[in-house]
Amino acid sequence: MDIIFGRNKEEHPEPIKAEVQGQFPAWLQGTLLRNGPGMHTIGDTKYNHWFDGLALLHSFTFKNGEVYYRSKYLRSDTYNCNIEANRIVVSEFGTMAYPDPCKNIFAKAFTYLSHTIPEFTDNCLINIMKTGDDFYVTSETNFIRKINPQTLETLEKVDYSKYLAVNLATSHPHYDSAGNVLNMGTSIVEKGRTKYVIFKIPPSVPEKEKKKSCFKHLEVVCSIPSRSLLHPSYYHSFGMTENYIVFVEQPFKLDIVKMATAYFRGVNWASCLSFHKDDKTWFHFVDKKTKKEVSTKFYADALVLFHHINAYEEDGHIVFDIIAYKDNSLYDMFYLRNLVEDFEEKNKLSSRPTCKRFVVPLQYDKDAEVGSNLVRLPSTATAVKEKDGSIYCQPEILCEGIELPRINYDYNGKKYKYVFATGVQWSPVPTKIVKFNTQTKEMLHWGEDHCWPSEPVFVPSPDAKEEDDGVVLTCVVMSDPKQAPFLLILDAKTFKELGRARVDIDMHLDLHGIFIPEKGLKTEME
Ligand SMILES: CC1=C(/C=C/C(C)=C/C=C/C(C)=C/C=O)C(C)(C)CCC1
Ligand SMILES: [Fe+2]
């Protein structure tokens, strides 16, 4: 298994023509850009966790039925410092490192409770974000890096904390119909003021200010104080309906005192996260127009969530779908020591990913009796009025065993049917990709022996009328090293294979990606 998880991958910065089998639709012109960890050993040092690996970007470019592949390591400051020192000198999620004393750009970044937290990493290995015509790679710290989506070269480093009070920001932003980016971050640095900040980045800057960065025009939509000043919630994504931001304050929390002392104690950031199983999960809904939070207190039982799927409004309710767990065992499974031979047998999740639908009544009869269910939609989800006026929500279970969910993003914030996701059972590694109909609960699968597919990306066809008119792209790495990895294209309606493009290289397993239609790519001349 070391082959897939732990072994360093080579970069292939020059385009490699893939061997195409089957038919790629003529309208599919553009680039699938993906991100994930590719290097876990530097000199004699090795990262502990799969999420620590140095970011390796890769892309598949579709042009007139042909497919070209390339890959390149992100030249982050983290990458450069590590490579120069020939050892790990910058801390990541699961590995605390001690910097090179002579050359240290990762010296202390901020102090809290009179202790020091070293500057966070800019190894942005999780996702890709679009602002206007520009593309950035993202992680969960205050840094993002601009990249050239064609050559995969690394460009400027952006520090969110220069523009707003956040030390962490999600790697899963949303986009509204005007092209604004909406994202959330946490401010842990101001003593006594731990808060979550929702912010908006415009796609372009006013004409007279050309060349100035869109980050200078960033706007705070709303700040939500953390329920606990020393234990803000950890979150990997959030939801967005037409009018509201949906934020789940889960009892999987960061411990700020532990973070402030981690460096001296020689422990990693991951050990500063803990699941408080007896706490509640609080829901927050922020009206994007008024920038105010809905004042009713909505809560649910303790859960752990990484990915929101979609959220929408219906008849005075907010409906939102997430993939939830009963505990935080998922992050523990990705320690490289657990991803060894036979890990599928030995390293089982103690809680299966469950697709849950919460239905939250925003408008309800204020005179309703205590104990009554306020949900007026046909769903088994409930929202029960409590004595103190708060509302206790229990979900409808839509299905089990799916992760890395994607939708047709034209339906984000709207009532929708389809989730495209990877199929996972008790192991963290996907063996299938699935199409799930949230209304009929039907599920279609694609899977083959030795195949480990990645997060499926839906691309709508140019004349799409229905939600699933288009294709699904996924990158398949092989657990059998004798077989070459490939890009798979499925008809999104039938889930039947249209074709595959094989690239005979050692490809890395990745995390997330986006499809950039050809018209969205600036030409080299611009
Ligand atoms: C470096 C760093 C962090 C990194 C978190 C990462 C890298 C999370 C990756 C999550 C993924 C890949 C989830 C997939 O579902 C924290 C804990 C935010 C806090 C402090 C510094
Ligand atoms: Fe994610």
Automatic annotation (TrEMBL):
Keyword list, A-Z: Iron, Metal-binding
Presence of keyword Lipoprotein: no
Coiled coil: none
GO molecular function, one term: beta-carotene 15,15'-dioxygenase activity
Gene Ontology biological-process annotations: carotene catabolic process; retinal metabolic process
Pfam families (alphabetical): RPE65
Obligatory cofactor(s): Fe(2+)
Residue numbers binding Fe cation: 172, 236, 307, 512
Similarity comment: family membership: Belongs to the carotenoid oxygenase family.
Name this protein carries in UniProt: Beta-carotene oxygenase 1
Species assigned in the record: Columba livia (Rock dove)
